[in-house]
Amino acid sequence: MTDLRAVADVVEETADIVRSRSHDLSWQSTFDTSDELVRILDQRAAALRSGDVASLADVRFWFLPTGPLCEIAASSGWLPEYTELGNRLDAL
Question: What gap in Å lies between CA 12 and CA 10, rounded to an integer?
């Protein structure tokens, strides 16, 4: 069984990265703005912490290789951090 709190930690750390710098969102079509991305990441983290297993599907999709977060990370200069977070998520 997936540790939802640990997944929420990964999502929150991702939101912190997005909050900390500007981003190029042009290579993906899931998120229109950085503010929207942070808002949705925060919502999913809260849902996961409350036991909402359904939020896992979104998180898994976002972290796929060439998924929206990968595209954002690659074009915005934080691909190593994304890779580490994605590896942690995969291990869960």
Answer: 5
